Amino acid sequence: MTSKRDDRRKAAVEKQIDENLRRAYEQDATEQIPDRFLALLEQLREQK
Length: 48
Prior knowledge:
single chain; mainly alpha; Transcriptional regulator; about 0% strand; NepR
């Protein structure tokens, strides 16, 4: 069982990862985050 604090911490880490990936790809505004990265992130989120 996870506490609300753990859930908030996990959400904050996920947000930071998302922001860092966006920043890494922001240099080329025409390029989207590759689908394989998005799929990997989704798989990691599902592993609770």
